[in-house]
Amino acid sequence: MKAVAYYNNLPIGDAKSLVDIEVDKPTPGPRDLLVQVQAVSVNPVDVKLRSGATPPAGQPRILGYDAVGVVEAVGAGVTLFKPGDEVFYAGAIDRPGTNAQYHVVDERVVGAKPRSLNAQQAAALPLTSLTAWELLFGKLGVPFGRMISDDAILIVNGAGGVGSILTQLARRLTGLTVIATASRPETIAWSKAMGAHHVIDHRRPLNEGLKEIGIPQVRYVAGLTATDKHQAAILEALAPHGALALIDDPQAFDIVPFKRKSLSVHWELMFTPTLYQTPDMVGQHKILMEVSALVDSGVLRSTLQEDYGPINAENLKRAHAAIESGRGIGKIVLSGF
Fold it and tell me: Could you give the CA distance from residue 7 to residue 261 in angstroms, rounded to a whole number?
């Protein structure tokens, strides 16, 4: 089968940074689905791994975590899906990725594809939806569906992949006032379209922007990027007994100053359940089923921004370069081979 992989950590401008290859079609394990891949999206984790995770000498590593496809075969222990089902999912970081014609994935982290979306639109959603859902309702403990609240959430980088869906979840499924950060006209417009009540400029101190909109303190902060750069402003912006949840990788982050306000700090990584085979792993199946239903009922929308065409090395290089630029909006998707 066709796939796209890398052998060495090379700059994305290098012709060999990602290459088209042929590999054997995988075989599903007992709890696995064998999925014929229709569309994928590209995430910052793909860029991080290509840049820093070296495959065994001479062995290709296939990236890609978001996928939409059709179940072709199932393992002996599968109970949630059957051949012919349309599915979407974000996979596992410790298994071969979705940039391939066929892919195997544990059924416990798979959801039914939203019926109202095409494959490209649906491929934009799984990884970011899982991350945003776990961050908002799990780590921060915001009550699901409680539509009356005096509290607010600050989402740092509202126009990114996670920020786009987190803004929608917070606006449509909670009573929080949603404040996103953005700095360009197009990212400000996108954040507002996703549902942000207010947008402030993250090129300036965040606490200054909050004061200007008349909300000097918030109960929750989602640190999606540059959390270390914004640490002092986040500390000032959080109300006593507030909470910060972050997903990025700051080189250093000192939480000791957060003690005086009794603030809680949480890390969110949606790959943790599959990495450690946690007992609650099937929770990701349940989240994706809920997201699918919310999309089909019109509560949530796809965050697809650009379709880069077929899944091949050349188009994936373009997508990686776009993510490395730091100027992305929403999600980049590829489809077909």
Answer: 48
